[in-house]
Amino acid sequence: MTRVLEISPRHPYGATVTDDRHENGNSVASLVPTADAFIMGCALRAGYAWPFCKLQFHLGQAGKGVDFSQFDSVTFDMRYAGEAGRKIRLHMTNFEPEFSTVGDWNSQRYNSVEFDAPAQATFTIPVNVVRTADWWITAHDVPLEKTYTRLDNVTALEISTGSVPPGQSITIDVRSIEFRGKWISKTRLLTWLVGAWIGCGLLGLSLSLLHVRSSLSATNARLELLAAVNKALQLEARDLANQAHTDPLTGALNRQGLREVLMKRLHVAGHVDEEMAVVFMDLDHFKRINDQHGHDAGDEVLRRFAAVIRGEIRSSDKLVRWGGEEFLLLSPETDVPHAVSMLDKLRAALAKQEWPQGLRVTSSFGVTSLKPEEDIGAAIKRADGALYLAKANGRNRVEIA
Ligand SMILES: Nc1nc2c(ncn2[C@@H]2O[C@H](COP(=O)(O)OP(=O)(O)OP(=O)(O)O)[C@@H](O)[C@H]2O)c(=O)[nH]1
Q1: ipTM score of complex
Q2: pLDDT digit string (tens) for 360-387?
Q3: Same domain, yes or no, for 286 and 172?
Q4: What CATH number is given to the structural domain containing 355?
Q5: Which of 66, 152, 164, 336 is least surrounded by CB atoms within 10 angstroms?
Q6: Is 281 a domain residue?
Q7: Which part of the chain is the GGDEF domain (predicted)?
Q8: What is the pTM of this model?
Q9: Are 305 and 350 in contact (CB under 8 A)?
């Protein structure tokens, strides 16, 4: 993760020396390159206003320098020997087309720092102590917002004598200069990590949402299934309830069904508060039908008999199979004369009905009126008495109790 740029005899970057003589000074710099070091000797002499000797490393051509902006620190392995003062300057010249022109060395941004040469050979300084030199800012009339240090296109690095008195010999022995930096800056790494974290969070959130949605739809599907099962069970329960109240052969109510109807229509005590016709009916000579044509024919006669009656009565009337070939008919809000005329119509319908094996089927009827508040049992008994009379009087007739 660490990037390194090393300047040393192994990576010499065209090391040269220069001095202030071209500024009309008198200092004289010399270079002795060895296998381990660049040894700059400097006879620092008065003459130029700021006498100097410097060791230069040529990192690149104008416009093709080295980007030092990602380096954080620079470690020197160098030895300084002088007679008065121990100052060193580090210069880094940055070519910027806005200010710099090829061939004019001083037109490059002059970034610089001066520091005391430490006693120990190896030491490190942060790169951000390097600043654009004030004289360069002034000389190039640089606007304030562009006075910052820029190191993205460094063409040369220089180790120079610093502000020390002239008239002395100085030796600077440079073994290596090593710049170090991170390939990924802390800020960028942090940005990436935060981005990745947010991305993972969003991904996790999306996955959770998907999971919640799929479990919701699974729950809905289960609820729908339960609703369907519930409906089927309700239908089945209704069928069972109907079966419990209905005679399977004729579809008429059975006695349990009658009880339910009475529970609904009558008071629990067995009284009604309205007039109702109660009819007891019994097929004539039904035993003979069974005996002569068989039990199945008898069943079919019973089925058709109930069907004919149901076809003639109102929906509010209730037909009950009392037992065997006996039926009870409850006709609410009907007085006896109306009940008799309804029964006459019924007898006519039975006469017109086609019966199995060309049979002729008739029925006898006993009718009575259940008065408000009267006990239903008493009325049934009365109707049964009237039926007995109808049988006795020759059958296929209606008798009133
Ligand atoms: N096929 C069939 N016959 C039944 C059923 N329930 C009762 N029976 C028969 O119905 C007959 C009733 O005969 P009876 O009580 O003597 O009356 P009946 O022959 O109709 O004579 P009357 O009522 O006097 O006219 C008996 O033979 C019973 O076995 C049934 O569900 N199916």
Answers
A1: 0.95
A2: 999 999 999 998 778 888 999 999 999 9
A3: no
A4: 3.30.70.270
A5: 152
A6: yes
A7: 274-401
A8: 0.49
A9: yes
